[in-house]
Amino acid sequence: MRMMKRRAFVLSAAACGLAGAITRHVAAQEAAQLRVSFYEAAFQRVMKELIDRFNEQRPAIAIRMQNPAQSWDAQLQRTIVDMRTGDAPELAVQGYNRLRLVAESNAALPIDDLIASEPGWAAMGYTPSLMSLGEHDGRQWGLPLALSNPVVFYNPDLLRQAGVNEETFARSWEDAVAAAARITALGGGRMGAFFDYTADGNWMFQALLFSLGGRMMSPDERAIAFDGPEGLRALQILREHYGPGGDTGRVPLVHDGEEGGIVISGRLEVTVDGERRILGPGDAYYFESRRPHRFRCIGNKPCEVISACTPPTF
With a cut of 70, which residues of the chain have pLDDT below it? Predict the structure, then answer.
């Protein structure tokens, strides 16, 4: 059973959703070209498909894509610099968790007037909850382009071998953890569950926290908010997933940054670039995160680690 993820991002203005309004705005200025700025080459096909659909409706307007930025931070910084130098693209993709910075840095223009002038906007499917993703300080700065949700993959054969009903094992986290424990108890090196905690700056922890009704920061982003009951419950669930035999998966992790940690209890196997070390309480580790690495809890007791990485990747 494995938790997976997809990325989420927001447009500071949306080409397809605001096709009519943008067309009228462009026509008034007698412009014939719009530039689009976005993050990571992995999304280039998505952006191209959106642009192709836009061109089917408005063939007179040329769309040009900037070279994709290689990180969300680089994308935000590029947009701010472009705004300062008067060379900003008309459309820019930004991460949801950077919306406040986008607005307060004047790296985008609010689109309330564009929305108000769009005929039939109410029928386009942008619900209040979706629109809230692009709101800041009472104004609309962007539209949601994609949403992310964790996905659970499970092995029905292993569930059956462990005597677990695949129709009911995911009714609650308690049921899922109990099912994982029964699979691990089968022996033979089987790992009952894997929770991808390290994905994109601990995005999976954030998703778990949000699903429990919590949030990472206060609405004004000036105080942490994950230290309440929801955050503690999320950490408890993660702790249950990293019992004896738990690891970060067979495929080594590779990402930008540096990371370090100290073992509080239990025994931790740390493998970096194929070099393996067994750490116990009081032992610490540090390495560049671009080096392939993985972690595994060994022995018959849970392993607790305090760790940090910089910079955050999400």
Answer: 1-31, 197-201, 240-243, 310-314
Shortest CA distance to 295 belongs to which of 224, 145, 212, 191? 191
Q: What is the DSSP code (8-state) at residue 127?
A: -
- Cβ–Cβ under 8 Å, residues 13 and 143: yes
CA distance linking residue 207 with residue 195, whole number of Å: 12
Give the total number of structural domains in the chain.
2
Distance CA 24, CA 217 (A): 38
Label residue 188 exposed, middle or buried (CB < 10 Å: 0-12, 13-18, 19+). exposed
**C-alpha span between 246 and 296 (Å, rounded):** 6
Residue 215 has which token pair? 């949030």
Residue 218 lies in a domain: no
Quote the domain boundaries for residue 257: 252-314
Please give the structure tokens belonging to residue 258.
């540096």
Read off the tokens for 159: 């569930």
Contacts 24+ apart (CB under 8 A), 78-85: 78/37, 79/12, 79/37, 79/107, 79/108, 80/105, 80/107, 82/37, 83/107
What type of residue is 169? F
Report how far residue 278's alpha carbon sits from residue 269's, in angstroms, rounded to the nearest whole number: 5
Given this model, what pLDDT does residue 103 score? 87
Domain boundary among 92, 120, 146: 146
**Final residue of a domain: which of 146, 169, 184?**
146
What are the structure tokens assigned to 18, written together?
């605001």
